[in-house]
Amino acid sequence: MSFIDERKKEFYYKRAKAEGYRSRSAFKLEELQKKFYVIHRGDIILDLGAAPGGWSQIASKYLKGQGMVFALDKRPIRPFEDKNIEIINMDMRNKSLLDFLKERVGTKADLVLSDLAGDVTGNWGLDADRQNYLVEIALDVCDLILKEGGTFVTKVFRGPNIKELENEIHQRFEKLRRYRPKATRKKSAEEFFVCTDFRGKSDELEG
To answer: Which of 28, 61, 108, 155 is catalytic?
Structure first.
């Protein structure tokens, strides 16, 4: 059986298709929401690397018609019927992102989501380093556009340098909690960090 055929038989893949979500990973965010309540009605949310859009769909669901989800990706994203989701076709390292957000909603984001993922090679250490480099880029975005007291939810890979990444997060956020959703594939090294009470990039980190 090919990888594609195997994936199509997966419970969460079938469930996503049945419920109209664009990716099986949508259920990971739903689990995180039910456990940590990271999404609140009226929030301004930035979904990094949003394509194909499953996380944006879940985020909008819990906004309950108030607030906005900005689905950001340099890759094309198929338009959403949901009026609470707006697509931003931009690289997340673009410094004009803050200007865009302030012009569009007049404020910074309450929540930054990142299900960013690079190509997996099968080399555990290399894959962890690549994944956690993406987290570091996402942290740079938080420094730019996240409100004081805001929340950051990101995928990480367990690896030899995870402590260094945790230290960077602790210098920005008051609390870091870890969670591995049931929707994660058993063979995957991924887990999720829920980082709350953003206080900004410390002088120690900048030096």
So the answer is: 155
